[in-house]
Amino acid sequence: MHLLNSLRSRREVGVLGALVVICIFFTLATNTFLTVPNILNILRQVSITGLIVMFMTMLIIGNDIDLSVGSNFAAVGMIVALLYQDGVSIWLASLIGLLVGGLLGFVNGLITVKAALPPFIVTLGTQMIYRGLALIISGGAPASVRLPAAFYNVTGSRTFWNLPVPALWFIGITLLAAFLLHKTSYGFKVYATGGNEEAARLSGINTGRIRIINFVLVGMSAALAGIIQMAYLRGVTPTAGQGMELMAIASTVIGGTSMFGGVGTIAGSFIGSLFMGVVRNGLVLMGTNAYLIDLIIGAVLISAVWFSTFSTRERR
Amino acid sequence: MENNVLISYQSISKRFGGVQALEDVSFSINRGQIHGLIGENGAGKSTLIKITGGIYIRDSGQILWEGKPIEVRSPLEAERYGISIVHQEIPLCNNLTVAQNVFLGKLITNRFGQPNWNLMEEKTLEVFRQIGQDIDPRAKVGDLSVALKQLTAIAQCLIRKSQFIIMDEPTSALTPGEVGTLFEVLRKLKAEGTTIMIVSHILSEMMEITDRITVLRNGRHVATTDTADTSIDEIVHMMVGGITLPPPLDTSSVKDEVVLRVRDLSQTNLRLKDISFDLHKQEILGIAGIQGAGRTELATTLFGVHQPSAGTIELDGRPVRFRSPREAINHGIGYLTEDRRNLGVFWEMSVWQNMSSAIIDQLTGMRGLLDNGRIRQTATQAIDQLQIKTSGIHQLIRYLSGGNQQKVLLARWLNARPKILILDEPTRGVDVGAKAEIRRVIQELAAQGISVIVISSDLEELLAISHRVLVMANGSVKGEFLAKDVSTDEVMALAVQK
């Protein structure tokens, strides 16, 4: 009874319910939805954005937001590809890429915190700056790479029992983020900072540092996503990842994270990511007109958030 | 008598999770009277108000309005019956004018839907005159005093033709003069037939203004009686069911050893000027003063929120300079904020989380991993020690009453095991029972070797719980007394001097 009550009050349970309902619907409506290859396919499709979703969740719980992740994703993918083309080892190039991603996040955090500007504005600006960076270093042209098998096997390929490696990364990063957010004092401080920054500061929490670290983490996750996508596609375009930030934010919000900060879970965001993937995949399998899909997903997004907040709203 | 009853509560019950907020509460309020609702924090006053105003829905029982059962499911429905609530934190739009606020949602427009501000400003003046007050209807509400905001809210009720106005702690933020004005207004409203229910902790005021009084305790109805037939002592007894206050302070326990020495401390932006004082080991030092005297500013400067522009702070004989609250905490200083709502509570967090925010790094094992065993132990201990009423350590703090929220914040600082604890208005908005308990805790802390600085606007309380008192005015210390040697009048005289 107590467990049931505590479950009811958790928003991710609402979206889990919505996910189950929609899965049953697609299972009945198509022959191919509930098959192992298709499930693996969905996992792979959501994995690239999903890598970013986890740390976007942490950032939003800390009451910040990052609109530059899509540009960061493209810029880092491009940097790694160009370094590799210039003869740098792909391992070293990837390490540099991760550091650059972290640095771009650090710049976002530093400006947001030290200049006390709204993160929405700062990262809207850096979204364009980082995109410009990707375009300048590439001259606007796509880059393709022939990666060594050892690297490809741990980033882009399908491996053990035909599992897509990007999906494994996604699950691994989810577990890492869940550990960090829910089991450590760092996670506690993120919730405190997002819930009431002044009270957190008066409790001796260095809220500026927490927020900057959150930006660095989301920047590095965007970089990781960029590298894995580059490996999977064996190339990168400087215009990749446009709109990715909105998909990441949508998945986070569907999973029950509050845009006002202080509320949300990694489990919810994992379910939210799957939800977005399942809807798109199911609609495609049903043969829905491609032009209609975005329209339907938008409507589903609103309904899902409404459903999950409605079903768990405080009963007065 | 029966047709005199405006609203009658019959066996009202309401439960939140594991907490029974109201149980089988029945009483009635007569038309055209001022009715006082009294009880400690957590007694169920707020819940009853919110049920009346349609913000909460009762679990069982009935509300009779003029003898007929009614269902109030939303504030809008309450308004239709003529029920209005003037909340403690008055929800007005600070960016709009008085007239715009008064007519919010009830705009008078011409045929083309354009608002007729001249007419509305006129009517605003009229309503204020009706309650014997003068105001500039074009003044921005954000620039008004709390008292005038409150009158604006009352004017809103009058425009909506409310028959029943509920006021939640209307006097807690007012000066004595403003309280007098408010009471005049309430008497005028009563004379015109409006029924009023007031919730307040300040019993002397309740004795002055109300016709009848209802006392709640632990969600149950204790008594409803004519004010003339009872006394403050009797009401206190009904509220708390008999709590004895601790004996007066024994100053012999204070050590000579100085733990905190402040010399010529100034902070230009906060207008603190040349503040010097000592704090002894095991001493309770009260700081008296009126709003704006600089007490909170002094406390936050000592706590590292602000940097002093001149002067020295010595801790155990060593000069210190804190650049952040963290550094102050690391040096054994704790600060309980006066603004619980905005600067204290993490509203989305649980009881244990709110208790642990200052010591979270100490509640971890290897690599920052939270230690659930220690967390549970620390939190349970604090709940026992401070007798916090909660259904458990995982209960969200916002479901606790104000007094219990304050105890949770106090626990936050006790958990940090400070050498010096600064308590800023620790008993503000807290009921008699919780006040006594907080007072007991402060004395226990001093006995255990902690030095305490208490800031309070309640002079009687301050003199009762302190060994020594500093009086501040205009950012400076104006006087220093042993608490047992000074009267409230002497302190107040210093506090209000220019």
Describe the protein.
The complex is a heterodimer of chains A (316) and B (498). Helices cover 75% and strands 3% of the residues of chain A. Chain A has helices at residues 2-8, 11-29, 36-61, 69-85, 90-114, 119-138, 149-155, 165-183, 185-195, 197-202, 207-233, 244-254, 266-285, 290-312; strands spanning 143-144, 158-159, 163-164, 235-236. In chain A, strands 1-4 form a two-stranded antiparallel ribbon. A two-stranded antiparallel sheet of chain A has the order 2-3. Chain B has helices at residues 45-52, 75-81, 98-102, 117-130, 146-159, 176-191, 203-209, 232-240, 295-302, 325-330, 340-344, 351-356, 372-386, 402-415, 432-447, 459-465, 488-495; strands at 5-16, 19-30, 34-38, 60-65, 68-70, 83-86, 164-168, 195-199, 212-217, 220-226, 258-267, 272-280, 284-288, 310-315, 318-320, 333-336, 420-424, 451-455, 468-473, 476-482. The interface between A and B is medium-sized, with 25 and 36 residues.
Cα-based radius of gyration of chain A, to the nearest Å: 20 Å
Query: Architecture of the largest domain in chain B in CATH?
Result: 3-Layer(aba) Sandwich
Could you say what the CATH topology of chain A is called? ABC transporter involved in vitamin B12 uptake, BtuC
- Global morphology of chain B: globular
Helix content, binned percent of chain A = over 70%
CATH architecture of chain A: Orthogonal Bundle
- CATH class wording of chain A: Mainly Alpha
Largest sheet of chain B: 6 strands, mixed
Total domain count of chain A: 1
Strand order of the largest sheet of chain B: 6-7-8-3-9-10
CATH superfamily of the largest domain in chain B: P-loop containing nucleotide triphosphate hydrolases
Tell me the distance between the termini of chain B: 54 Å
Overall geometry of chain A: globular
Strand content of chain A: under 5%
Q: Which oligomerization state do the chains in this entry correspond to?
A: heterodimer
Largest sheet of chain A: 2 strands, antiparallel
Class by SSE composition of chain A: mainly alpha
What's the CATH C level of the largest domain in chain B? Alpha Beta
